[in-house]
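As a warm-up, study this chain.
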Amino acid sequence: MSFNIALLLFAVASTGTPGPNNLMILASGLNFGIRRSIPHWLGIISGVPVMMLVIGMGLERVFTQWPLGYTLIKIVGASYLLYLAARIALTRVSGETRSAAKPLTFVQGALFQWVNPKAWVMCVGAIAAFTVADLPLLPQVVMIAATFMVVGLACVGCWLFAGSQLQRLLKNERQQRIFNISMALILAVSIIPMMAVTLN
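Now compare it with the structure written out below.
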């Protein structure tokens, strides 16, 4: 297996599997449709590569020297995920309220990556696994970030499309309400492993 294929497979596995980004874009596709969710989608696929570049260029060393900073980010991230879970659970799904409700913006989608535990794992894991010491670091990190951007465009887009298709299957407000609450609970539960590591 070549270096590029290994990186590509890692990116597909990382960005295509369930996590906070994909659960939120799935719910956004259901509640707001594809067109209104595009800024959120683009925020995700832009935010992860930018985060990867920043980490690759030295932020990881800061957390090695100051571990409390990483713990604080996890706590802030957990709190924000709970807020987003509540926001999803409380989203009203009638035609009148859907038009008034707002999905995440591009900036919110991009900035969310900094408190998203899965994004941290993806970025640190990719840089650790797919960079080598005897080559310049910046070109390697740029290539990794670009790969994640392209793969994320497709994988996260699939979750958005799937959410929009659920509008056809969940035909009444009660079914969509149950779906939103279920997604909110899954998102909230996803915090538990992160906090367990933080508190140990």
